[in-house]
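Incident log, support desk, overnight shift.

02:14 A customer reports that sequence design results differ from what the structure should imply. Their input is reproduced verbatim below. On-call engineer (initials T.W.) acknowledged and began investigating.
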């Protein structure tokens, strides 16, 4: 065995750590103890870099970016941290030498799920990208006591269990008592004349102590470690709180809202939004002043970015601090605030735009409400003369008894961006059109990105290693350099090696499915993957109708040609989203029917993996052949699983929506399967009211049979759910045009199935996707934010197109 100093030293540190923490030998240690001991070693290595980074930022007076997000979805840290520290290979070797199952050790770490989906995971990808390009950027969010629910299926129904992620302590976090902040809610507030002008006097209300827990965000192959700060709600010291008062306070950081589309504004949710926004802003300003800067220097020293509208209260909160606590005038405070804050929108769904009842808002945050009234008044005055009363009305933060958060965010920030070109265009043309008329220069696009480090180098180590053998390792620093792989698309040996890697990854997933679900899936079949939140607009239902089409074809004609496929779903539905849960039930029953039917199951299988999250994504994505990105055009802001799947060599079966468009463009249309209506067609149907699901149903016999299968007992055990799905399509005229895209979808699936049979040609298309994935690195995304919005330096080399 090869001797390696790092491995030897790591081994000693690991064994010492086991003894120091648990007084056990390696042989007697559990996987959890092994994990915690190793994590402690890694944390020590991070700590030195972290301290130095903090000192360096303080000493140089670098401008700081703060990314405010109500969700972060980090998943597991150990493997990603080892990778970024350059210690992954050595650790693997050490574990081999010690005869320890490293996978089991890593799986002992809890998957930190303090977010719902795309938005939260994007925030965590940015937390990986920022230190990796030496950008001074920190996260600010909530340390929820319970994260996103754990999902199980019972009789095909989704059942939710609490996510008690702190049961075993979080090894990575550091509690910072001396950084705690008090956040105030409710009560009455009066303005009193004082020698310094009008000042608010508070009467009653609730004080909550926000205590931060910091985690080091490790840069890849450098010495930078930034900070993710998550706030926890506690009773302030010296306050005598009854049991019920205590529980009111602690509930503020008690649990993540398990909904990713803003069902209805609830009081506790508003308290959460204010909680991390206020604690974060107070803390930033406190340090800014302690470092000797004037408040007027704030926009030069600090950039605050709000991830969707959930932290929009930072705008009135900053005004409150500048006006009430530091006596600035309105105009200077407003200038400082707007030049500090920037905003990203993540949704085109009208129902997902955040609004709060003014009554509730005024009860919870009375002083902020007064300030919003003042912002509203200034806004109306400044736009009415030029654009008219009606325009002023439409764009005002306060209208119809509600506080419109996207309007407040647009007015109170200096930059507004969407997350893919189509999305940014639709923001300008439709959703935020009035604001675009007012301030066109505020608007830009910043296409989302992903971290290849987690989703490729760590989750698909053999793929990255194989690529290294062809183009060296520099592409890991400069992801666009992966285009050099295109030179090898006629290299047959390389294509075979790529296919071998894919097959190994499929086998790894098949083993998991066999072990955890008791289903043996066929690794020679196409792994056709749809993994994302369960939502009507994402159209898992369209995929399901495709499955039923194949099933009925095979049942009616044993010689029908259907390319062998394993349909792989993973998705959580919001607990209150009844329709989404009905779709889960139907998919599970179809899966049961198909998997237990010997007449079809050498051609098709359906598996719905429970409890989708970051760790499961890391297992599924490397194994995917096909990436289903089939939202109704104009609905998905960007999507990010589309980028992760592409980087791992899956071909897109996709509508022209969100970043699908850009992925197809980058990979080449011949290396993807685009289908369905485009955005213009969808909007025309909305305008002309000429879409008839009933007509489509009546005129397409194949589709007719498929839909009838949902209600005539063909699919067993779905009396109620099958009817509900049927009704949403036929009686309610199919809001998301599932039937309108059906024909195009099944035709495209058939063509794809044929193409897959030529393995070499398929692998060549797969290679084209991998080779085009570099531009979707979050490193570039974050660098673009840094250059164009935050105005902070970084060390990512600019690259020629
Ligand atoms: C708001 C108020 C009350 C309760 C919940 C919410 C809430 C929570 C989460 C609303 C929305 C979200 C999350 C939205 C989200 O994940 N959007 C996705 O963002 C991705 C990153 O930009 C995009 O790729 C996806 O297209 C978009 O759907």
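02:41 Re-run completed on a clean worker. Output:
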């Amino acid at each position: 065995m090869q001797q390696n100093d790092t491995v030897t030293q790591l081994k000693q540190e690991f064994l010492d750590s086991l003894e120091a923490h648990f007084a056990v030998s390696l042989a007697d240690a559990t996987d959890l103890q092994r994990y915690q001991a190793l994590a402690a070693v890694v944390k020590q290595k991070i700590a030195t870099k972290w301290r130095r980074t903090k000192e360096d930022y303080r000493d140089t007076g670098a401008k700081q970016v703060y990314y405010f997000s109500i969700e972060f979805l980090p998943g597991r840290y150990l493997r990603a941290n080892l990778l970024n520290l350059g210690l992954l290979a050595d650790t693997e070797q050490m574990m081999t030498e010690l005869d320890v199952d490293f996978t089991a050790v890593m799986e002992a770490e809890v998957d930190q799920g303090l977010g719902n989906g795309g938005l939260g995971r994007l925030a965590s990808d940015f937390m990986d990208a920022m230190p990796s390009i030496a950008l001074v950027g920190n996260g600010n969010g909530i340390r929820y006591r319970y994260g996103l629910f754990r999902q199980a299926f019972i009789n095909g129904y989704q059942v939710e269990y609490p996510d008690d992620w702190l049961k075993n302590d979080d090894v990575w976090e550091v509690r910072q008592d001396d950084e705690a902040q008090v956040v105030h809610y409710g009560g009455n507030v009066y303005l009193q004349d004082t020698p310094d002008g009008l000042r608010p006097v508070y009467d009653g209300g609730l004080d909550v102590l926000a205590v931060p827990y910091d985690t080091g965000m490790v840069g890849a192959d450098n010495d930078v470690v930034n900070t993710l700060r998550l706030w926890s709600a506690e009773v302030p010291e010296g306050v005598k709180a009854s049991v019920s008062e205590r529980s009111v306070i602690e509930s503020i950081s008690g649990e993540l809202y398990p909904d990713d589309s803003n069902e209805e504004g609830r009081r506790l949710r508003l308290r959460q939004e204010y909680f991390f926004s206020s604690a974060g802003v107070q803390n930033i300003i406190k340090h800014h002043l302690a470092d000797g800067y004037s408040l007027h220097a704030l926009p030069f020293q600090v950039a605050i970015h709000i991830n969707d509208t959930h932290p929009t209260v930072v705008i009135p909160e900053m005004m409150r601090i500048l006006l009430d606590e530091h006596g600035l005038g309105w105009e200077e405070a407003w200038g400082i605030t707007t030049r500090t804050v920037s905003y990203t929108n993540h949704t085109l769904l009208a129902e997902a735009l955040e609004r709060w009842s003014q009554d509730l808002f005024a009860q919870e945050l009375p002083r902020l409400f007064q300030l919003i009234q003042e912002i509203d008044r200034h806004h109306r005055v400044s736009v009415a003369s030029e654009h008219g009363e009606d325009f002023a009305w439409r764009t005002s933060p306060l209208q119809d008894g509600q506080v419109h958060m996207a309007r407040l965010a647009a007015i109170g920030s200096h930059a507004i961006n969407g997350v893919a070109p189509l999305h940014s265009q639709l923001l300008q043309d439709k959703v935020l059109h009035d604001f675009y008329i007012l301030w066109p220069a505020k608007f830009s696009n910043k296409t989302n990105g992903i971290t290849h480090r987690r989703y490729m180098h760590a989750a698909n180590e053999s793929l990255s290693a194989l690529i290294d053998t062809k183009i060296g390792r520099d592409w890991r620093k400069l992801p666009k350099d992966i285009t050099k792989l295109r030179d090898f698309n006629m290299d047959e040996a390389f294509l075979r090696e790529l296919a071998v890697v894919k097959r190994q990854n499929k086998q790894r997933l098949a083993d998991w499915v066999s072990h955890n679900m008791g289903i043996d899936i066929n690794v020679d079949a196409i792994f056709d993957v749809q993994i994302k939140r369960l939502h009507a607009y994402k159209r898992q239902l369209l995929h399901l109708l495709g499955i039923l089409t194949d099933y009925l074809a095979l049942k009616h004609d044993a010689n029908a040609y259907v390319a062998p496929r394993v349909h792989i779903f993973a998705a959580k539905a919001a607990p209150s989203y009844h329709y989404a849960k009905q779709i889960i039930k139907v998919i599970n029953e179809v899966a049961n029917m198909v998997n237990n039917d010997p007449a079809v199951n050498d051609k098709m299988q359906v598996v719905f993996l429970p409890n989708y999250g970051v760790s499961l994504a890391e297992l599924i994505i490397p194994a995917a052949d096909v990436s289903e990105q089939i939202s109704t055009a104009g609905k998905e802001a960007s999507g990010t699983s589309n980028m992760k799947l592409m980087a791992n060599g899956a071909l897109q079966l996709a509508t022209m929506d969100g970043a699908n468009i850009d992925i197809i463009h980058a990979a080449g249309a011949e290396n993807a399967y685009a289908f369905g209506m485009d955005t213009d067609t969808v909007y025309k149907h909305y305008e002309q009211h000429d879409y008839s699901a009933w007509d489509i149903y009546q005129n397409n016999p194949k589709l007719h049979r498929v839909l009838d299968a949902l209600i005539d007992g063909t699919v067993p055990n779905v009396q109620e759910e099958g009817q509900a799905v049927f009704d949403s399509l036929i009686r309610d005229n199919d809001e998301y045009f599932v039937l309108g895209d059906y024909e195009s979808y099944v035709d495209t699936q058939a063509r794809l199935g044929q193409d897959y049979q030529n393995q070499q040609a398929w692998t060549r298309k797969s290679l084209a996707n991998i080779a085009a994935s570099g531009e979707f690195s979050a490193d570039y995304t974050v660098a673009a934010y840094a250059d164009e919005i935050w105005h902070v330096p970084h060390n990512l080399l600019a690259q020629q197109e």
